[in-house]
Structures are given as C-alpha cells and as structure tokens.
Automatic annotation (TrEMBL), chain A:
It comes from the Bacteria. This is Uncharacterized protein. The lineage of its organism: Bacteria, Pseudomonadati, Pseudomonadota, Alphaproteobacteria, Acetobacterales. It comes from Muricoccus roseus.
Automatic annotation (TrEMBL), chain B:
This is Glycosyltransferase involved in cell wall bisynthesis. Keywords: Transferase. PANTHER family: GLYCOSYLTRANSFERASE WBBK-RELATED. Pfam families: Glycos_transf_1. It comes from Muricoccus roseus. Residues 188-331 form the Glycosyl transferase family domain. One of its GO terms (molecular function) is glycosyltransferase activity.
Amino acid sequence: MPHTASTNGPTFGPRLLVSLPGSWLPRLKIPGSLFGRDALRDVVMPVELRAALALLTQEATARSTSMQFVARPEIFTHGRARAWLDERIGDARDHVALTDGHSLRPIPGLRNHMFFFPRGNPASEQALRNLLRVAPELFAGLASQINGGMAFRFGASWCRPPSLYLRLRQTPESGIMERLPFYCGPLGRQGMQGIEPAPPEEALPIDRPIRYIPLTEAALADTPFLRMVAQEVLEAIFGGPELLLLELPRPEGGAETAGRLETVIRALTATGIVFPRARSWAVQFVTAPPLGMSIASMLLHPGVPFWRYGLDFFDAAQRVEVAGSAAATRFRTLLSAWLERPVGLLRPAAAAGAPRVTVNDVP
Amino acid sequence: MSATRPRLTVDITPMLEDEWTGISVFTRRLVQALERSGRVHLDFGIRMTRIAAAEARETIRHGSGAFLRGRLNDRPIDAFEAINPAQPLLYPSVKENFGLARREASTIHDISTLVMPETHDVANVAYHLDPLRDQLTTDEVVFCVSEATRVALTDTFPWAAPKTRLLTQYVDWPGDFELLDRNQPTVELGRYAVVIGTIEPRKNLDLLLRALEHPSVAASDLTFIVIGRRGWLADQALARLRPQAQQRVKFTGFVSEFVKYRLLKAAEFLVLTSVYEGFGIPAVEAMSLGKPVLASLTSSFPEVIGDAGLFFDPFSVDEFAAGLKEISDPRRLAELAPKALEQAATFTPERMAAPVLDWIGA
C-alpha cells in the first residue's frame, strides 16, 4: 500500500496514461501503441526507473486507477491519428511522462505530469536543462512535476510546475546489500579484486550509530560535497563515533560492484584528500540500502533520487540532512515537504588554500 | 510587368548537397513553383551571400550542388555580395542566421529532433534545436510542411501559432519518364510492394520484418522491395528471420529517380512504416502513379494520404498484417487506385507557391 500525498490535491482520474522515454521502446516487446504493465515485466532497467514505475503502479492500485502505457504520444498529433488515440484511452485525463531529460512529450488536452527519473545522472540533468532552454513552454504547461522541485525563469516571471509527491511506504528491493571496507588508494593490477566483501551472514555492528550517505554520479561530481564526505570518512576512520555507510552509485550501464567502487575511489582520489592506505571497516561501502535497521542520520546530496527509498527507510533515520554546493537549499525544501518532517542543511566548507581571485571585465 | 513583381530572396543552401533527397528536393520544387507562378522575382542566397540566378538555375539543371559548392569554394572573398536586406528572405529549412533581412520566413519540416531526439544523432539535434527559438522569434512567417507539423509546433510553442502557414509540396516526375519507361523492358519482379525507408529507428522497418513471420503475411505471395540503404541494422534484423522470410525482402540501395519511378509504377502499392513524418513525399509520389498506400497511423500520413490508403498502428504487427491483407486484395486496390490519383493531384506547384506569394503580397 503506497503512501501518497500531494501538495495539490488528489492525483489521477479513473485512468492513467504513462509514457516512457523513446529510447526505451526498442527494449520492449509491445503489442501496439497502447500496452499494459506486463510488457515491462522482464525488462532490465535502472533502479530509478523501476522505482518510478513502482510508485505509479502503487498509486494507481491504491486509487483503483487503471494504468495504460502509450508508446509514442507525440505521433498522435491531430485528426485521424488523434481520434484513434482518444477512442482508445477513453476517460483518461492524466498522462505521466517519464522523462530521461532528452524529451518531454505532453499530450495536448490531458493533464500532463512530468516524472524526471534519472535524478543525479549528470548527462540526463544536462539534457533536461537543454530541453528547458529550447522549449520552456513544455514545462510551463505541466499539471505537475512528480517528486521534483524544478523552477525556472521564463520571460519576466518565475515558473514552477506544482509538485506532486508520491512516496513508497516500503523501499523496493534493489539487490543484495554487499558491504565492503573503505579503501581509497592506488588500485594496482588486481583492481578491486583484493577488496573482499563482508561475509553475508555477518550483520552490521550495532555498537556505533550509523550515518548513511548514498552517492550518485552527481554527488561524486560535486567537489565541495565530496570533500565534506571525505572529511567525515577521515573522522570515522580515526575513531569518530559513527559508522559511516556509503552507498555506491549506479553509473548508467555499470551495475557491477567493482565498477561502482572504482568510480567512487577515483572521485575521492580526485579531491586531493589523502586517506590511509589501509582498509577500514569504520567506513563501509554498501551496494544497497540497509533495510530494517535504525539509522542515526542520513546525508543526501541534491542529486539523489530520494523517492526510490520508501518511508520505512526514512522513518528509520533519526536525522535527515542535505548538503551540496548547488541547489541544496531548494532540495532541503523539496525533501522536507516530501517527507513532511524537518530536514537539516549542512554547508560544505570552502576549500582550503589560497583565496580565490575574481577579475571584473574592465581592463 | 516584371518591374512590378515583388522580389524575394530564397536561401538555397540545401541545394549544396551532392545527392538531393528530402529538403534539397523540397527547395528545388519551391523555387520552381515560385518561378512558374510568374508573380515574383526571385533572388538567391546561400547563407548571407547572393548567388546569381543563372548559377541557381544551373544547379537545378544538374540536380546536384557539387558544382556550385566547388565554385563557391574557389571564389575569392571580395567576389561575394551580400543579400539585399530590404527584400524578404525565405529559408526552405533551418534558419541559422537571424535578421539578415528585415522580413524573414523559414520552414519547419518536422519537430522530430525535439520529440524523438533518440532517433537522431546528437549533431543533428543541435543543428535543429539550437537555433529554433530564435528562428521562430525572428520569423515573420513560419511555414510548416504539413498540418501535423503545424499542430506539433504550435502545441509546443503556442505563441508561434499566428505566424504559421502551410507549405505543402508536390511531385514532379520529369516529363520524359513515362516514355522512357515504356521503352524499357517490363519490370519482372512478380507481385510486390515498395517500401521506402532505411532501417533507422524512426522509419520502423523492423515492424515489416517482424510481420514477415505473421501467419497471414507469411501466406501471402507478395515480396517487398525496399528503396533505401541496407545497413548493418537491417542485416541484424534479417538474420532473425527464417530463410523463406528473408527472401521476401530485397533492398535496392540508393536508386535514381527514374528507377524509383519504374519500381513504384510496377508495384501493387506502397508501404510506409515510419513512426513519425513531417510530410511523407513518397506517399504522394506513389499516389501520383495510381498506387495506394499502406501507412502508419501517425503524424502527417492521414492528411497526406487521405482516403487513398489504409492505416495501421505503427507498433502493431497484427494491425499491419490485417492492413496488408486488405490492401493486397485486387478489388480493394482497384477501389483505392483512382482515389490515389485524385489525392496526389491536390498537391500542386500552385498550392505550394500560394502561401509564399501571399506572404510577400504578390
């Protein structure tokens, strides 16, 4: 049973149309332009997309809304083609466009809701910004943005499509949680092979409070944020009170643990902060969130698709904080509204070193 | 008389292509339709420089931009002359420069780079989308090649709607094709349908290939002649088929206009599986030869084909197979053939020229 809430009233009508990004269509075996959820059953997809679909499915189930997918809403432009679509979608009034940022295809005449699912993927976020620059009108006309807080200036005024908050009560399965000791140094010829995970039967120690930080590509690309994480890592390694769990990011197409780990190590190395050349279990890399455990605190970067965690996971955290060099304040507002609880804001410290030089444009 | 005719500069950049397809041919037809009207004095430009009318006409005679491009490359910089900013400037496609003339118009063929960018390469998406807002903003008139394109564009940019006009093209087979065709041996390919398009995702040829395994299509004696390049994607898709099904599809590669004419004329009908089109000139080409069209129910096809064809859901093999069965019936074909001629005849040079002439007050 999903827990669903919105800042702008009830969600969808009796029937819901959903469209996927066009790039996903070749991976599906679909019987026609309109198809059911079954066509997606065995398709391998990123956790963010799977979670977005789970959110919509559970929302629809909870409200007895029937859900139908439309392959390419953009082809039903007018006349006979549009009449064909209208005849088949019957009383559908809502359309959720699941977007990867490269296109947004609203269906004129319907209430269009945008769900940008690859939050935290720099290429997808850049694509979304490009699209916003080319066609802000597409976004200005949205009935809502699901789990998003996008705002933009369009002409003389600011535009912010209403947010629609959908939440999962339970965090969906995202694979077995593997735990690996923290290590950040040269990978050597063996690469990640020398880093052994904790035996699956070995439970997480309960003598120290857990601090949980999910990492994404966007988080790794945010140097001030990463420096802040690195400082927390050092503190934990050198006897700090908390056990730090760093969830490995899932770079597009790279689901293997070794690749995910290597991405993090390279990013941490690039911060210039030096770590001990030894493995430490005071900080651990995890491949999935630790469900069913009490967590003292959670630190989220604005580039985390937070909605892929259920309320069960957030409820387990005594404290939720956000940090990031950009958009952190807006993200705190969004997350706080989504969670309906206060969220703390941490500001990454300015980088140490020589003061920055700013030059004006007057010679 | 000619002194009173308004002047118009047409940007003929698309005609610099070596092999003319799509937009190059559209540009050539537009120029010829306007000249044929006798109501406008045309000047020509490439980007911001003037091109002598004789050079433009010679390029049209060649049917290729190779010679003109070579000549422009060798021309010293001081030999270039700027276009006249006082007279209206028409771009038959993307407008890359803004404000070269006081009155400008450009042409939108489709917005597929906006709504299905994944079917284009990144450079093509940037080429079309980067200037789009400025293009629409600085245009006095935005010509759209179909109602589908106009609706798609104005659904996205409602503020551009008052500027939009339809600019539909026509088919102009060279006059001697009919005679030349009669003097050639008969096309002996059995019963076949022509399919136009490549294996690229937007053309959706995969649907046809998958349909070959459908019982009703497998039972038919029809073969499919695909006019278009056979890429590795086609090889991949064909490799999934049984050998009997593979034999039913033949790729011609790039063919001349005359070969296309002959293949269409001897075909039973045309198949268009594309999931999105701005206009769909192959449909008009086929209809002009009395050939009905089996087409995807998408974007511009219904308005271009009208009652001269049958439509199917571009993602449904079953619907495609049903449409194929119906249109393969000789009685149905006989019913549709006159409608095809009638529909094709509605697309004329006069119809293409009219909105442009109207814009410049000719």
